[in-house]
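User: Can you predict the 3D structure for this chain?
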Amino acid sequence: MKKILFLLMFPIPCFGQKPILFDSLTVSNEGIFMYNQQPFNGIAFANNKSGVLLYEKDFENGKEIKNRNYYAAITDSTPHLKFETQIKDGKRNGLRKGWYYSGKLKFEGHFKKGWNNGSYKNWYENGNLEKESFFEMGVKVGSYKNWSSSGKLIKDRYYQKTTPTSSKLVKRVKYLESGEIISKECWDTEGKNISCD
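Assistant: Here is the predicted structure, written as structure tokens:
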């Protein structure tokens, strides 16, 4: 009864069959999730031992395309979304977002074939941006900035790609909340200190 109650209290986009327990699915030798010997289309869910919604997974033609995890506190009368991830071929692919228990956005990042690819941002619970970085297929590139909880830029680093699978920190600047520069350092891609001019 508890499982049904939690599902009814939280609107679920259902495309295909009604939501079912994840443990009801089987996996074929080809990695396809099956229900009643057919590739599953719809939402599968799991609850924790207390009956609180723990996660949901969306499937299309037996392949997972999205998952949602919840905080699943015993005191929850409605589920609190923790993060949501788009999936392709079993890997993170597309947008991934996370939330604080309060429901405020905590992070947002883009993925491709399981790797960070594009911008990745984190926020303080007060809504101010905490950090922002950029990736190319898992490699940190370009600017990587940090802000204080009051919204002031406190660090700015710059990463230069050196090979398809690596990058080097080539510049780091630290600031006071007033905006005054505390320190500035620069390096070449070999790690040698150079002038920042």
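Residues 14 and 31 are 22 Å apart (CA to CA). The longest helix spans residues 2-9.
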